[in-house]
Amino acid sequence: MPNRQFAARVALGFRAHSGWAAAVALGGSTSDPIVLDRRHIAIAENALRGAKQPYHAAEPLPIEEARALIHKCRLSSESLAVEAIRALLAEVTPGRHAVGSGVLVGSGLTLPPLPKILQSHVLLHRAEGEFFREVLALASDRCSLRVTRVREKEIWERGAAALRLDAGAVRERITAIGALVGPPWTQDEKMAALAAWVVLAESGKAGA
């Protein structure tokens, strides 16, 4: 039987999109996690110009105006993310201890300076992806959550290593968890759940 201290833990997992993110809260032990909540959270203010695609909105502007717009959007998105994470924690942490947040991130390649980003369509999309992922990481930190960044392309291998299972077994377990909670259980929920599971596993091996 898992130690109650570890069974009472909860971890959050996030997969970002432009202006929103899939969020999954997992509780229970590492060996037998349960979905406590899954939802989509808004991380862009509809009324703010360019909030969902800040770099695209900044593209035609003079560089200082572009910087100001991106900064304004970042502050707004971070505030929304903090509010959403606090609301989620308020629902899932009574009687439990939040051990961290798993945020799916990109390749980790360093972006060039802003003027070069604004000259490249490919870099605009990449920068916006990083923008919203970093918003979730910063907001998690502001909510006193230890942040674990997991590269999307490596999520199944990272999960396998953390859980001491092969990648195929991890996929089967994630699918089974989804069957228990029902739809929606898309790739967003699966990957966010696995990010949370990695956090559970790496925060306390004794819970396995």
Count of distinct structural domains: 1
Question: What global shape is seen?
Answer: globular
Compute the separation of the termini in Å: 10 Å
Work out the radius of gyration. 18 Å
Helical coverage, percent range: 40-55%
Structural class: alpha/beta
Order of strands, widest sheet: 3-2-1-4-5
Strand content: 15-25%
CATH homologous superfamily descriptor: Ribonuclease H-like superfamily/Ribonuclease H
Average residue-wise pLDDT: 94
CATH class: Alpha Beta
Any low-confidence stretches, pLDDT <50, length ≥5?
Answer: none
| Element-level helix/strand string | HEEEHHEHHEHHH
Looking at the overall shape, the CATH architecture is: 2-Layer Sandwich
- Counting DSSP H or I runs of 4 or more residues, the number of helices is 8
Main beta sheet strand tally, sense and closure: 5 strands, mixed
Question: Might you state the CATH topology name?
Answer: Nucleotidyltransferase, domain 5
How many β-strand stretches? 5
What does it look like?
The structure is a single chain. This protein has one domain: 2-Layer Sandwich (Nucleotidyltransferase, domain 5). The mean pLDDT is 94. The N and C termini lie close together (10 Å). It has helices at residues 4-7, 54-58, 63-92, 114-117, 121-142, 155-163, 167-181, 187-203; strands at residues 9-16, 20-28, 33-42, 97-105, 147-151. By secondary structure, it is an alpha/beta fold. It has a 5-stranded mixed sheet with strand order 3-2-1-4-5. 41% of the residues are buried.
